[in-house]
Amino acid sequence: MDFKQQVITALAPVVGQAVDEATINKLIEVPKNSSLGDYAFPTFILAKTLHKAPQQIAVDLVAEIDQTPFEKVVATGPYLNFFLNKANFSQVTLQEVLTQKAHFGDQDLGDGANVPIDMSSPNIAKPISMGHLRSTVIGNSIAKILAKTNYKPVKINHLGDWGTQFGKLIVAYKKWGSEAEVKADPITNLLKYYVRFHQEDVANPELDDEAREWFKRLEDGDEEATKLWAWFRSESLKEFEKIYDMLGVTFDSFNGEAFYNDKMADTVNELVEKQLLKESQGAEIVDLSKYDLNPALIRKSDGATLYMTRDLCAAIYRKRTYHFAKSLYVVGNEQREHFQQLKAIIKEMGYDWADDIIHIPFGLITENGKKLSTRQGRVILLEKVLNDAIDLARQQIEAKNPTLANKDEVAKQVGVGAVIFHDLKNDRLDNFDFNLEEVVRFEGETGPYVQYTNARAQSILRKSGKTVDENASYVLEDDEAWEILKQLNDYPNVIQRALREYEPSVIAKYSLHLAKSFNKYYAHTRILEDDGMMMAKLGLVKAVSLVLENALSLLGVTSPEEM
RNA sequence: GUCACAGUGGCUCAGCUGGAUAGAGCAACGGUCUUCUAAACCGUAGGUCGUGAGUUCAAGUCUCACCUGUGACACCA
């Protein structure tokens, strides 16, 4: 429920001549310190029209305002501080959460519209790295946030399954590889061939010519080349699936680069028809100088198409297939200009949906300050990180809760949860230097901290032996419960903001704050004690658990009931 | 060189549309488990918010300049 409206309604009659309701709404703020109330109204802007000092205005307004809906309204300096009626707020909020359960916070902002999300997109024959983790978990979380606000996300894994690297890979495989090796451990060995190719072609540049030749054969539909390509692709996908399983991520489409091969000509033709294609230095480009952008390369001087051509083709295909409201691309920040160009070309083509193309960039992961590079074999393998995290979680369980049932399953939930949460808790655009100890930390501001908080809440509910019934009396008025109640009530706003900014970290931070408030309450208040308020307290515990689980689920993190 | 993004306590980061004494977590030090899971809680210490101007009643937040770091700058994706 929106308690801010109470404040607006109270203020409107007394300041109505000077400012309208919309302005009041904008000016009202939430004080940083809760001793200053729940909402505050600064009086500065009234000073000019009323010709009085802000402090005096605050004092005068307090005298005039109808205080009945509130616990109290006081003037503190130039501010009017509103304290809400805790009993009412508590009752209304808890009842709402307990009634709506996992649907608390659901909102219809999308009207069921499709929103394709380009995410994850690993390259065939290369391992999934920490860099792909970012795109995968950010995209997955945004998809869940979209679904909660009644959009229909379409998760597209735009696989890197085409390109000159396949020429290199075929050459390397034929020279140094074996079928048995690839079958045994596809990614490791394919990567090994690829890295070796890049080592050897420094001294033997003719390798590059061979690679080009093989890629040409692949493009021309040569049987041997196609067979190898399809085999590399399917073996790689099997490996990818193992990791996606661990992360709990699924996709609606695996249409990658190769999927657009036979659709590219239409896109290029359309550019020609619309007279957007120009020749420059032997290549064909779209001039974007009026957007202050570099020209976009559509066709190389040898006639081959490029990344941009393919993305343009895919953008148009997605519009025709999904009739999307927005089309999202969860891709690293270093490709910012690429997407600016993409939008500009679509605009030039006369499509009114150009601005619905939205690049959701994220920061770089480095190791010891250096950019990771597959070519040089400098990668952080996601599978290894996940397994390390799970092992560590398993050790923690042995140390702290050795009698726990299904330890392996919980270790997986906690370990993987830690890795996902670590990636989502900070602003997307922040770069971070990879540090295993930091990623798999279980204390402080981490995923396991939130999971643990929920497990404690669950434990209390189990031990109470009572069913929390949504129609009981849920009046709690102490300060520590109050902090929790305000946060519970704020959850729908938090989801809105996360959606508006395409920012899962908003949810992650919220879950940390809520967990912290609850742990504080837990430490100081005996819940399973019949002091006449036990049902109300259990209602609070249940509500916290529901919202923590929901918030974690929006991040793609699971919530073990015990840990 | 041009453009973009960033610069907050030892480290990692919050700070939404400018608003009341700048908040957490790690690390350090000191407390709290015979009672609901101590993966927790409480306390102490630690900051000229890169630098300098400007706009405003009010600037970590907006504008400009400079410094530092990172990234992008057509035939890779």
UniProtKB/TrEMBL annotation:
Protein biosynthesis keyword on record? yes
Does the keyword field hold Transport?
no
Q: What class of enzyme is it?
A: ligase
Alphabetized CDD domains for the sequence:
Anticodon_Ia_Arg, ArgRS_core
- Protein name per UniProt: Arginine--tRNA ligase
Provide the protein's localization: Cytoplasm
Gene encoding this polypeptide?
Answer: argS
Residue span(s) of domain Arginyl tRNA synthetase N-terminal: 1-84
Q: Which reaction does it catalyse?
A: tRNA(Arg) + L-arginine + ATP = L-arginyl-tRNA(Arg) + AMP + diphosphate
The text of the family note is: Belongs to the class-I aminoacyl-tRNA synthetase family.
The entry lists its GO molecular-function terms as: arginine-tRNA ligase activity
Q: Which InterPro entries does the protein's record reference?
A: Arg-tRNA-ligase, Arg-tRNA-synth_N, Arg-tRNA-synth_N_sf, ArgRS_core, DALR_anticod-bd, Rossmann-like_a/b/a_fold, tRNAsynth_Ia_anticodon-bd
Known partners and oligomeric status: Monomer.
In Pfam terms, one family for this protein is: Arg_tRNA_synt_N
Q: Which UniProt keywords apply?
A: Aminoacyl-tRNA synthetase, ATP-binding, Cytoplasm, Ligase, Nucleotide-binding, Protein biosynthesis
Report the EC code(s) recorded for this entry: 6.1.1.19
Q: Where are the transmembrane segments?
A: none
Q: Where is this motif: 'HIGH' region?
A: 122-132
Which stretches make up the DALR anticodon binding domain? 450-563
